[in-house]
């Protein structure tokens, strides 16, 4: 390719392909400001960087909503908050057999990572419910030893972070959602972003790999999205899920405007250029909002996706995603 035909900022970013070193904040901000007509050039570079410097293959994971609803936090996008009025199913922590059934179905469809998710603030200290979750993790390890068991159960303290490490958790998910300085205004003010960031630090000190990303479409600017990507780099996370808001009736964001596709492509491509060696995972919004364009996002630097259901919204069939992954391999 004659890179002289590219926008100079994209041509300069091709050094990531050669060196594996991430772009700077200034470079990312310039690339983020480019008009939509340059998004495909940026996506092409990001896909090349993924193929050369990424982990290889497709990281597929699925999650189970193991405890639903009546969360005391006021996250503006979330159907499970009791501050909102979404019509969802509400239930306490499920039993081990139910978890095992879901996990086995995922494993049979070639999904390598299975995550337990619970609504609520989290577990700063040990309690009876947290111990039940540890028992579920142990049961999954015993019954499905090839499956990577993950968790997303909120904010942790030193004791609970250490316990998850001892019980062999593969990844722990807790998202920043947006740039740290915008969290209180755009996401929630019943807890602080620093609590989330400290949870990441506790887990990293225990040697646990962290899955931590954000959400597009909650009122943030492109500059905010870049700031989030760099905050994630400072936290040393290994998997970066990017969600595209699915507006849910009964939440404050039920009438939120859709983000232009070209901007979403840029976010995924920038995530790859800021994090050349990380797993970039396309999560919520893949099939419900992107529809015919979801393959494009997977060729814009992403090398992972969330398959199955997304807690309170429908997801994509596991078998369909297995075929989808096989077709994507021809671009590698």
Helical residue percent band: 40-55%
Number of helical regions: 13
Low-confidence stretches: 310-315
What Rg do the Cα atoms give? 19 Å
Structural commentary:
This protein is an alpha/beta fold and 332 residues long. Helix content is 40%, strand content 16%. The chain is built from 13 helices and 13 strands. It has a seven-stranded parallel β-sheet with strand order 4-2-1-11-10-9-8, covered by helices on one side. Strand 1 (59-67), helix 5 and strand 2 form a beta-alpha-beta unit. Helix 3 (25-32) packs antiparallel against helix 10 (222-235), helix 4 (39-53) packs parallel to helix 11 (261-274) and helix 5 packs parallel to helix 6 (128-143). It is globular and about 60 Å long.
Task: Write the SSE topology.
Blueprint: H1 8-13, H2 15-19, H3 25-32, H4 39-53, E1 59-67, H5 96-108, E2 113-118, E3 122-123, H6 128-143, E4 148-152, E5 155-156, H7 158-166, E6 171-173, H8 183-186, H9 193-205, E7 209-211, E8 214-216, H10 222-235, E9 239-244, H11 261-274, E10 279-282, H12 294-298, E11 304-306, E12 308-310, E13 313-316, H13 318-328
Parallel strand pairs: 1-2, 1-11, 2-4, 3-5, 6-7, 8-9, 9-10, 10-11
Antiparallel strand pairs: 12-13
């Amino acid at each position: 390719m004659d890179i002289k035909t590219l926008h100079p900022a994209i041509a300069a970013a091709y050094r990531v392909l050669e060196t594996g070193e991430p772009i700077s904040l200034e470079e990312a901000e310039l690339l983020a400001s480019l008009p939509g007509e340059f998004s495909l050039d940026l996506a092409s570079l990001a896909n090349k960087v993924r193929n050369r410097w990424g982990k290889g293959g497709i990281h597929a994971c699925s999650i189970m909503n193991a405890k639903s609803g009546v969360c005391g936090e006021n996250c503006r996008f979330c159907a499970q908050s009791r501050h909102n009025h979404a019509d969802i199913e509400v239930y306490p922590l499920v039993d081990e057999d139910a978890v095992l059934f879901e996990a086995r179905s995922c494993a049979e469809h070639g999904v390598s990572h299975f995550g337990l998710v619970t609504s609520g603030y989290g577990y700063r200290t040990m309690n009876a419910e947290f111990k039940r979750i540890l028992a579920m993790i142990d049961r999954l390890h015993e019954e499905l030893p090839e499956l990577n068991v993950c968790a997303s159960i909120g904010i942790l303290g030193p004791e609970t972070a250490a316990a998850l490490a001892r019980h062999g958790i593969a990844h722990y998910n807790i998202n920043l959602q947006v740039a740290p300085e915008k969290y209180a205004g755009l996401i929630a003010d019943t807890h602080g972003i620093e609590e989330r960031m400290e949870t990441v630090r506790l887990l990293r000190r225990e040697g646990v790999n962290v899955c931590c990303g954000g959400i597009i479409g909650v009122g943030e600017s492109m500059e905010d999205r870049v700031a989030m990507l760099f905050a994630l780099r400072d936290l040393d996370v290994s998997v970066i899920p990017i969600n595209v808001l699915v507006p849910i009736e009964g939440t404050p964001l039920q009438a939120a405007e859709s983000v232009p596709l070209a901007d979403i492509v840029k976010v995924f491509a920038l995530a790859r250029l800021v994090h050349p060696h990380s797993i970039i995972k396309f999560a919520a919004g893949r099939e419900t909002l992107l529809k015919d364009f979801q393959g494009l996002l997977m060729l814009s630097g992403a090398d992972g996706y969330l398959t199955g259901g997304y807690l309170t919204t429908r997801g994509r069939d596991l078998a369909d995603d297995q075929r989808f992954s096989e077709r994507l391999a021809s671009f590698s």
